Fold:
Amino acid sequence: MIICLYPGRMRLAWALVLAAGCYSPVPATGIPCAANGECPTPLVCDRARAVPTCESSLSDAAPTDMTAPDATDSPLPIDAAIDAGFGPCLDDDFNDGSATDWTIVDPTWTVVPAEGPDSSSAFVASPNVGDHIITHPTMRALRRAHLALDFRMDNGATSDFAIYLVPPGWTDPNGNNQARYFVAIYVLGGDSGPNDRIVRSLPPVPYVEVATHAISVPARTWRHLDATYTENGSIEVKLDGSPYMTSPADTLLPGPLDLLVRFWANGAIDNVHLDCLR
Structure:
């Protein structure tokens, strides 16, 4: 046995004398990583351990302490980077008595005091027949959206409530020749049905129902709806916080899309919140 000096490591190590000279053994695993995260070659610093140690390979364990990530940590995953741009775009409870920011596509809409689910103001559509459609500048050209609102259908015979997702440039979002996705909720006991549904419309191809649920919402009751549209064309609907219907991924009507709110016959909305990504 002789002592060999290994430059760069600044340490002595025992080695065997072979025919070719000094032989460097593989460093022992389990020793703590250096403060800068370095380990003796060929070991790597496994930060997934409670105390980062030098190992022959990285473990699959999740990091136990992420409070002080090292500068050499990998960047955020792509999904996390996309999520970083997804956030609040609109909040309106109409309690200021105004809806001047909204675009009324089909009249008439009016802010009415004491009409909301909490007896505050609400945005009311009337008269008791025909289409009533609105949108908002923040609802344009969306790649992803989560719309949450309270709604009420007031006509027990003919009311329905819908969320439209329409390619930009529309003139009549409800027209027979307009491509769109729509979420339709029909009044219980009314003349529509047989199901609430999510529909893809690509004229001249007939409507395609991509998800359905039995009609369940009675007239003149406030309900809370969450509708989420994702980049892959899937739409998820929750009613009063519970899963209601979800459509699969769909690429036949790619985004970005404009979002609109529609009633047939009179109804009302309140407490509108939109998260979006453009």
